[in-house]
């Protein structure tokens, strides 16, 4: 690793850097470096993370950047880079974060960029001079959490395919020349919390579905929207949204002091139809309202793009767990053991869970990595890092590192409800009805994602209470994907070999005992 961040070093990166053939981490951010990013850097095949932001690098991004097949994060923001975005970024299969913002990049977005699909979490290309329209290929970024294309010169329509980026949390597109209506397909983005479309050339009515999303921030100002402004959801809170500079809007909450919308007179036929359907509407309305109430209280939260760890060494994990001591053992199962560990502040502020696979469980390690690398959902555990190494004793060592879940697995809670005299753990000992319902919704939404929202549906095959983890806020996460199977693989084999708990996709019953 080389870290020289936040100093006052000037000069350029010597091409000889290519001699550090084992380099995995290069951080030169926050200095006064100038000159080009030497293409030789792309010969460092083990590089995982490159941080060159906040310098004065100029010239093009090396076209061969796609040779870095291990690259997981690259930060080039706030430099003087020019030229086009190299299409070869699409060859980096591990890339989760790409930040090219605040440079002098020009040209269009290469469609190849979206080949990084399964892995992308954050894409920031704001504050450049990029042109053209946002390619439809963006819909391939099924795990994207933050997209920032603001302050460029993009034109054309917002592609309907954006609605396929179902895990999107933040969408920044302000300061471009985007035109047309907001696509109805965006109603599929149920996790959206921050949306800025201000200073564009968008028109038409503001779509109804914005009312139903759990938006925290919605900026539609300085466009050409017209028609009646809604009053519910985000539109009920004047400090959460902005619509200034849209001359054609009327209605909305009184604080806005918009003109009232003119109501046109209804014909008798319309009135009769209205009366006729009022009963139906009442019933449907009640049902919808009840449903909305329920979902509203579960604001979808994915959180900001998480910082991923680089792959870790056996020594570090050994140290983090006091030599895999029993005091740090959290659970033991068929495939291995889970330890609580402290990696140290330079890796992770929070404790992590380290799942060490038994010898001979290499398949489960591979399956779990394979399954989880491709998916990101707020109710599915995230891999922070992995380790494949040789132990001191010469045995093969494989481990996956996750966030540590404060409240353990669901089966422990069920157990505790029967043993209220248990003192060992300082947690509230009873899951109340609200917790139970929320856990059921969390698990159901994870399964809905696995079964219905992935292109290639994934079947967990081992869903049980011990594999449902609870964080400090009692949000539930599905874990333990060691037996998971992609449905597509199944068509070619002789049937499922999962344990009896296997539940076919489509119908899953989640049962909770209610203790009175
Ligand atoms: C960075 O370099 C420029 C010229 O090369 C110099 O004017 C400036 O003071 C330097 N900044 C710092 C923080 O060293
Ligand atoms: C990148 O990879 C290609 C093919 O693998 C190779 O021909 C080329 O020389 C590499 N470029 C650099 C700069 O390493
Ligand atoms: C994108 O980059 C710009 C400039 O570096 C920054 O101001 C902005 O906050 C970033 N967007 C996101 C979503 O992080
Ligand atoms: C930005 O790039 C354009 C050409 O793409 C060039 O003419 C201009 O000088 C560059 N600006 C800076 C500040 O580097
Ligand atoms: C909304 O966007 C406009 C223009 O981009 C900006 O001036 C304004 O501060 C934003 N409003 C809020 C509430 O952030
Ligand atoms: C904005 O859209 C209108 C039509 O809706 C068009 O006439 C105008 O040229 C557009 N402006 C820009 C800057 O694209
Ligand atoms: C209104 O929005 C602001 C800014 O997003 C937020 O701080 C505040 O809590 C919201 N108020 C209500 C009642 O939701």
Automatic annotation (TrEMBL):
Gene3D superfamilies registered for this protein in UniProt: Ribonuclease Inhibitor, Transferase(Phosphotransferase) domain 1
Start and end residues of each Protein kinase domain: 324-516
Cellular compartments annotated: Cell membrane
Keywords: Cell membrane, Glycoprotein, Leucine-rich repeat, Membrane, Repeat, Transmembrane, Transmembrane helix
Keyword Hydrolase appears in the UniProt entry: no
Domain of life the protein comes from: Eukaryota
Membrane-crossing segments per the record: 268-290
Molecular functions (GO terms): ATP binding; protein kinase activity
Family label: Belongs to the RLP family.
Protein name (database record): Protein kinase domain-containing protein
Organism of provenance: Daucus carota subsp. sativus (Carrot)
């Amino acid at each position: 690793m080389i870290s020289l961040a936040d100093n006052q070093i000037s000069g350029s990166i010597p091409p000889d850097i290519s001699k550090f053939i084992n380099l995995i981490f290069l951080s030169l951010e926050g200095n006064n470096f100038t000159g080009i990013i030497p293409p030789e850097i792309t010969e460092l095949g083990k590089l995982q993370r490159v941080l060159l932001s906040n310098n004065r690098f100029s010239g093009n991004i090396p076209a061969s950047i796609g040779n870095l097949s291990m690259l997981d994060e690259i930060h080039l923001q706030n430099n003087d880079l020019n030229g086009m975005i190299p299409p070869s970024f699409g060859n980096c299969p591990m890339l989760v974060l790409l930040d090219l913002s605040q440079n002098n990049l020009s040209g269009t977005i290469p469609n190849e960029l979206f080949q990084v699909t399964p892995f992308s979490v954050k894409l920031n290309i704001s504050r450049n001079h990029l042109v053209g329209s946002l390619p439809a290929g963006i819909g391939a970024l099924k795990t994207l959490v933050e997209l920032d294309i603001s302050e460029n010169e993009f034109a054309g329509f917002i592609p309907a395919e954006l609605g396929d980026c179902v895990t999107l949390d933040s969408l920044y597109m302000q300061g471009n020349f985007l035109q047309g209506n907001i696509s109805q397909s965006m109603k599929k983005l149920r996790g959206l919390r921050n949306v800025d479309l201000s200073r564009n050339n968008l028109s038409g009515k503001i779509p109804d579905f914005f009312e139903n999303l759990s938006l925290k921030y919605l900026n539609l100002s300085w466009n050409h929207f017209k028609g009646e402004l809604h009053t519910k959801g985000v539109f009920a809170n004047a400090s959460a949204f902005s619509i200034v500079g849209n001359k054609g809007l009327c209605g909305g909450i009184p604080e806005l002091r918009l003109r009232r919308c003119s109501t046109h007179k209804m014909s008798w036929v319309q009135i009769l139809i209205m009366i006729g359907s009022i009963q139906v509407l009442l019933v449907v309305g009640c049902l919808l309202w009840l449903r909305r109430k329920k979902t509203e209280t579960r604001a979808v939260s994915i959180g900001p793009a998480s910082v991923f760890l680089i792959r870790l060494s056996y020594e570090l994990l050994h140290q983090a767990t006091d030599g895999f001591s029993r005091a740090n053992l959290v659970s033991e199962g068929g495939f291995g053991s889970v330890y609580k560990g402290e990696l140290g502040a330079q890796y992770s502020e929070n404790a992590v869970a380290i799942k060490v696979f038994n010898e001979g469980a290499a398949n489960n390690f591979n399956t779990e990595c394979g399954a989880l690398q491709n998916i990101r959902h707020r109710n599915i555990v995230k891999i922070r890092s992995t380790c494949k190494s040789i132990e001191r004793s010469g045995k093969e060592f494989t481990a996956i590192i996750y966030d540590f879940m404060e409240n353990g697995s669901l089966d422990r809670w069920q157990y505790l409800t029967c043993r209220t005299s248990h003192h060992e753990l300082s947690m509230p000992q009873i899951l109340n009805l609200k917790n139970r319902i929320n856990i059921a919704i969390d698990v159901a939404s994870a399964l809905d994602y696995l079964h219905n929202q992935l292109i290639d549906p994934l079947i967990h095959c081992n869903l049980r209470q011990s594999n449902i983890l609870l964080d400090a806020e009692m949000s539930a996460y599905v874990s333990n994907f060691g037996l998971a199977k992609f449905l597509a693989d199944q068509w070619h084999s002789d049937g499922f070999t999962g344990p009896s708990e296997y539940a076919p996709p489509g119908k899953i019953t989640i049962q909770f005992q209610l203790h009175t």
